[in-house]
Amino acid sequence: MKVYKAIIFILFSAAFLFSAAQLSFADPEEAPTAWPNPDLLVEAEDLPVLLLEPDVVLVDMRAEGFAEGHIPGAVWFGGIPALVNSTHEIEQFLVDADAFQQLMRTIGVRNDSRIIVYDEGNGLGASRLFYALSLYGHEQAAVVNGGIAAWKALELPLEKEAEIPIRGNFTVNFDESRSCDITFLLGNLERDDLVVLDARSPEEFDGSEVRSERGGHIPGAVNLEWRKFVLDGEDIPFFRSPDEIAALLADNGITPDKEVVTHCQSNVRGSHAFFTLRLMGYDSVRAYEGSWFEWGNRADTPVTGSE
């Protein structure tokens, strides 16, 4: 494995000499402000060096495409569907603690592993796994900015062979501070220091697009669609700069002194918002796993907007 990773590094070095000039800023003043939690976001050009570290586990969170070509050294997880509890009454609900522990052990995750996750590029799959890891007590995780799209843009090598990981010893340590269920939300909606961040589209938020029995949104919620955090529509959907995201959050009253609860229809987009807030240095962040699928399908929950 060490020899294999050394080969990756050599290949990277040659490619980086060419790509660095394209990626560097012409004017130092144009360089973005640093991320408040920089360890949570990895740039594709930094991956080959990071993969030399023995405790790093690189996870491919795409649902498909692994066999056709993946970043060398990655293990395939199966995408967002692999995280779904198929027997749960709530759509796309996260797998329980025991199941998640076994899944992580199968792909070689240890308690001391640093997990780096990539997906197609928009961050949805990678953020979903990041949230699951946070909920189940593993904070040593990061997302690749731009996913495999960023890696390919650098013309770095892909491989088709799949590594067989050594089974890990990952142990769940459930973090209550990252969890939000409907009871918590109903009991805390009136708090001045709590913000509900709805990461759905504006149409879902105002009720003109209905995906549950009722449309609309949780009273007092702020609509900030997950797409606004990335360069949506670009070839590579990188995260926007720290300054741009900070301005978006501040303009919507989502400040670091408040506790933030993220959600969407099934907490996939909500997980993306969760990751973004953690990246921006927000410490008090939860995700409402039941999301609008649960809230909008119950008759006893308050709703603002079209029903």
UniProtKB/TrEMBL annotation:
It comes from Cyclonatronum proteinivorum. Residues 52-160, 190-304 form the Rhodanese domain. It holds the Pfam family Rhodanese. Residues 1-26 form the signal peptide. This is Sulfurtransferase. It comes from the Bacteria. One of its GO terms (molecular function) is thiosulfate-cyanide sulfurtransferase activity. The lineage of its organism: Bacteria, Pseudomonadati, Balneolota, Balneolia, Balneolales. PANTHER family: THIOSULFATE SULFURTRANSFERASE. Keywords: Pyruvate, Repeat, Signal, Transferase.
